[in-house]
Every structure is written in C-alpha cells, then in structure tokens.
Amino acid sequence: MQRPRRLVTVSHSYVVTLNRRLANEMARVGGGAWDVTAVAPRFFHGDLRPIHLQLDSDEPAKVAGVRAFLSRSLHAFVYGPELHEHLRRGVDLVHAWEEPFVLAGLEVALLTPRRVPLVFSTFQNLSKRYPPPFAQTERFVVGRSAGWIAGGQTVKDNLLGRPGYAARRSCIIPMGVDTELFRPDRASGEAVRRELGWNTEGPPVIGYLGRFVPEKGVSLLMRVLEQLRTPWRALFAGGGPMETELRAWAARHEDRVRILTGVPHEGVPRVLNAMDVLCGPSQTMPRWKEQFGRMLAEAFACGVPVLASTSGEIPHTVGDAGRLLPEADDTAWARALSDVLESPELRRELSSRGREWAVRRFSWPVVARAHLDFFEALLERR
C-alpha cells in the first residue's frame, strides 16, 4: 500500500486557528492520500495584538509550532532554526504561504531540500520595484520553486512579466469561504435589524462591509445614497479612519443609517444577512487596487446580491454572479441601486446566482482540492 504523500505548508497566518482552514481542508479532502502538517509561529505580533499559537484538538492537519523572530515586520521576520527539521524529513512537497520577496519566504526556500518541490502562494497584483535585499530574495525564491499559486487573475497577469515567473508552472486559486458558516439565514438577518432598532419590514437595506477608508469607496457610496429617490436604509459595518466623517453623514439621515464597528468574523454572516444588497465600490489608487474582495465572496455565500466596482480583481471575483459598475460613475451606481431596490425579483435572481457561484468557486473543499490537484501535477512531472 502506497504511503500518503507528506505535505508541509508554512505560514505566519497559521498562528490563528481560523487561518489554518486551507491546511485542514487539504487534509480532509485528501482522503488519506495526503499527510498535511501546518507549520506556524508559536507567537506573532499581529496587526491588532500579539497572538500566541491557537490550537484546536480536532484539526485534521497536524500543527507544528516554531519560533518566529522580528515578527513586528512581515518583510523581515524569520522562523526559528527548528523549521529545518520539519522541512527535511520525508517531505514530498513544501508549500509556502509567504510572499517570495520576504525573508521568511527566502528562509523556506533555503531550507527546503533540493529534491523536494517548493510551491509558494502570492497575492501581489501591483507592479513594484523592491529594494535590496527583497528584489534578490524574490528572484532566488522564484528560481528555486517548482511552481507558484496566484491568488487571482490580476496577480498572475502582473507577475508573468517579472523575471522568472513565466518559466515556472502556475495556477490561479482564489481565497476560500466557509459556505456553511456563510449561508442564507433570513431569521438571523431579521434579528440583527431588530437589534439595530429597525423594523424587520421596511425599505431595503443597502450594505457596506469593510474598512472605512477612501480606497474602499465609502465617499462614493455616501454620495450615491443621497441621489436615490427610491426609499432605502443603509448599514455600514467595519471600521477605520473615516468613521467620524461617516457618523456625521449618518446623523443627517436619522433613522435610515446604522453603523456597526467591532464585528468579529464569526458575527459577519448575521450582519450580511441583514442586508438586501451589498455594495463594494472600491476605488483604484496609485499604490492600491482590490486584491480579491473577500466581503463580496462572503456576501455571495449568504445569498446577498452584490454590486461592485471594477477595481483590481473584483471583476474576476464577481464573474456574472453580480453587477459590475464603473469605479467613479456616481450616476451608474445610483441607477443600478435603484434597479435592485425596486425589483424584489431581481434581488431573488442575484441571490440565487451568487450563492451558486460561491459554492462552486470559493467553498473551502473546492479551493483545497485545487491546491492538491496542482501539487499532484507537479509531483507527477518529476
């Protein structure tokens, strides 16, 4: 009987249990054909707070904790020397969920035995010139790799023009969404509306989920809402530097607007289900464009109709499951929102189409299977 293939996947984000969903799903859908180990820092300085390695006793993947140094910097942090032990013993393939230009990505490439294929995942959809040593790091990691996974079409399009990428096998695999947690749930959505002091019946609720920052199109959405003649309510969920401006604007609209901050990830499905349509009006900036649009995929999974701009990866995330609109065209946004608000039938159609798209494209079993198929194709070539 053939032994299971041994996969080691390395990522600083694995310090959080929720972020190991890919590793756990690969172990699950591998059906015994893959033995998966997720290597994670024992401690990491997160964006909001320091994080100690979170462990769950029923994870299908093995979890190995290693030290991490200089973890306040995603570019400069490195793993402890014990990482070498996890990469060198009976491993069939190493997957690095670290960008190829960061020092941790270089460390994984250096410590992976030459006989073992290395695959890295990347989400860089902007053309950048990295200073030393990061430019040299990127070239080395790409040259050492057997293949790379792009987080979206715009990522792949961008990177194929950089040195070395076109010479390596690649594929596009989007981020995953828990389509069991994120699902249509009218009752929970109505409960959220009551908690917000709204009647469950009333004008449709236009939703926004994400950071309150200019590049996410908050200002555009405020302007567009003021143009609408169709009755509406609006729910903004998130947080960020524009919160004060947003609250001042909301005060002028009295009972029509609600703002929710500090929503934990597990609470997001309830909030999404309180919305009749989600808007993703992201605006491309000189140094930023949308990399994926997680809130769009999560809204689809909840059966919430989606209107979104054409920034970055959004057209590929939305496909034909939602409505795409020009980034800065207030009139087009107002017209599209009016159409959706005035037509329950259109909302039902978009809801059904979005849910089907999310399950087929973004569900974790689908995403995990795509990773394993790519890994198997690389191994079969050797």
TrEMBL record:
InterPro entries on file: Glyco_trans_1, Glyco_trans_4-like_N, Glycosyltransferase_grp1
GO molecular function: glycosyltransferase activity
Domain named Glycosyl transferase family: residues: 201-357
Ranges of residues in domain Glycosyltransferase subfamily 4-like N-terminal: 17-180
Organism: Myxococcus fulvus
Assigned keywords, A-Z: Transferase
Presence of keyword Transferase: yes
Pfam families: Glyco_transf_4 (PF13439), Glycos_transf_1 (PF00534)
Organism superkingdom: Bacteria
SUPFAM superfamilies, alphabetized: UDP-Glycosyltransferase/glycogen phosphorylase
Name the UniProt record assigns to this protein: Glycosyl transferase family 1
